[in-house]
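User: I'm putting together a small comparison set for a docking exercise, and I want a reference complex before I start. The sequence is below, and the ligand is zinc ion. Could you produce the 3D structure with the ligand included, as C-alpha cells?
Assistant: Of course. I'll restate your input first, then give the C-alpha cells for the complex.
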Amino acid sequence: MSPLRLIVIAILLYIGYRLLFGGRKKVNRGQAPKEPNGEFPTSDVLEEDPVCHTLVPRQQAVSWQDGDEVFYFCSQECCNTYIYQKGEQG
Ligand SMILES: [Zn+2]
C-alpha cells in the first residue's frame, strides 16, 4: 500500500469523523437553558408528596414549612391532610 493511499484514507476518516461529530455545534454546557416563555422548565425538581406519594414539580407544588424542613404536596388538600395527621400524632 502506498503512503499516498494511506493519507487519502486518513483524510476520508477525518471527514467522516467531522460529519458525525463536528456538526453538533449546540453543546450542552451543563446548565439549563433559559425558558423564553417563562414557562416552568420540564426538568424542574420533582418532590414526593408525603401524603399520596405523587411526584410533583417543585414550582407547582404546594409547599409547607415545618421548622427547618419544607414539604411539598400535589394539592392544598394533601397539605391539609398532612398537617392534620401530624397534629394527631404529635
Ligand atoms: Zn397529594
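The beta strands are 46-48, 55-57, 62-66, 69-73. The mean pLDDT is 84.
User: Thanks, that's exactly what I needed.
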